[in-house]
Design goal:
single chain; alpha+beta; Aminopeptidase; 5-stranded mixed β-sheet
């Protein structure tokens, strides 16, 4: 039986395991700096700004969705940005990924949110096919930009 539940502080280590597994799949494991303390502080502190759902199959954790609220100035409404979605390789195909996305879609509808968005690496054909099968559209005319490290610090100091 597949269930989706909200994560608790007791899940911090599990969430970090999922983050590392996702980073490994995306060939980015060396970039993970987060630790359990960061997870506890940011997801379960007094004013959390990021949230997590856990997928369980027969009571065992098999995946997670880590997300936060975004805002569309054009729509004048909040949305959800899905930062991470991961399902263990050995249980893919059981519906955990779809169930996690379904729960986020339900949350959007229940709260009157405008959209659910996320990014996917352009080489990740299985995930792209999965998202396409759900009716997700690609925003091919948008390019994501990022400032980190020295560039971020340099701009802040100007």
């Amino acid at each position: 039986m597949l269930e989706i539940r909200e994560a608790t502080a007791a899940d911090a280590g599990l969430i970090l395991e999922f983050i590392r597994a996702l980073a490994d799949y995306e060939r980015l494991l060396g970039e993970v700096e987060a630790n359990e303390g960061d997870i506890v502080r940011d997801l379960f502190g007094s004013k959390p700004k990021v949230f997590c759902d856990i997928a369980e199959a027969d009571g065992k954790p098999v995946g997670f969705a880590l997300w936060f609220y975004s805002y569309s100035t054009f729509r004048g409404r909040h949305g959800i940005w899905l930062e991470d979605l991961f399902v263990k390789t050995e249980v893919r195909g059981l519906g955990a990924g779809k169930a996690l996305l379904k729960r986020l879609a339900e949350r959007c509808v229940e709260q009157g949110l405008a959209r659910l968005e996320w990014a996917v690496l352009d080489w990740n054909a299985p995930s792209i096919a999965f998202y396409d099968s759900l009716g997700a559209s690609a925003l091919d005319d948008w390019t994501t930009r990022r400032l980190t490290g020295e560039a971020l610090e340099r701009l802040a100091a100007e």
